[in-house]
Design goal:
Pfam families: ACT. This is ACT domain-containing protein. It comes from Jatrophihabitans endophyticus. InterPro entries: ACT-like_dom_sf, ACT_dom. α3 (about 85-95) packs antiparallel against α4 (about 100-110). About 30% of the residues lie in helices and about 35% in strands. The longest helix is centred in the C-terminal third of the chain and has 17 residues, at about 195-210. The strands form two sheets. Strands 7-6-5-10-9-8 form a six-stranded antiparallel beta sheet. A four-stranded antiparallel beta sheet has the order 2-3-1-4, sandwiched between helices. It is α+β, with helices and mostly antiparallel strands. It has helices at about 15-25, 55-65, 85-95, 100-110, 165-170, 195-210, and strands spanning about 1-10, 30-40, 40-50, 70-75, 115-120, 125-135, 140-145, 155, 170-180, 180-190. The radius of gyration is 18 Å and the shape is elongated. It has six helices and ten strands; from the N terminus they run βαββαβααββββαββα.
Amino acid sequence: MSFLLRLKLPDRPGALGAVATALGTVGADILSVDVVERSPGHATDDFVVELPPDRLADSLVSAAATVEGVHVESIRPYAGQLDAHRELELLDSLGHGSASLQTLATGVARVFRAGWALVLAAPVSGQSAVLASGGAAPEIESLPVPWWPPAPSRPLDPDASWAPPDWGRLGTELAVTCLGEAALLVGRPTLRWVPSELVRLQYLAAIAASVTPLEP
């Protein structure tokens, strides 16, 4: 089974290798590593690892924690596709005849290893219609948006009164960005949004808005 493991590592030579060695001791096969954020003295990395059927996810947490200075931020099952060029492929598809909001929403969910993405229309009387959805998106036709406008790109509180109650209970981490006159709302379980990801989301949405008609 595959897992997405987010670790905060000390930014020093050998730290990544030490984590890889520690995960290897429990039989984990590292499928990909993405650096999602750097700060003074630390780096936040996403590891997609495959674990043998006879091992529990807790063994990954325990193994990573044996490396001095490593903090496990989150772990969750991962069934997404592995692709180092996710954003480029999405933009390429949007620029070559596949420019639809459905393509965009599905692609964004995959790029950011999210559970789902929604494209929301500009609100009317405080309510935004759902123009398109991707991933395992909630089956809703509209959503109250007291947080509008969607700029700047930012996380949103899933426990706020406007959000469906299930989002908070499931530990959904929300992020929103501007998509032309519309908005792109992305939700994923337990994996917090770091500033560098919000910048990526903003840039991706800005480029997509220039080539994608705002219609379902």
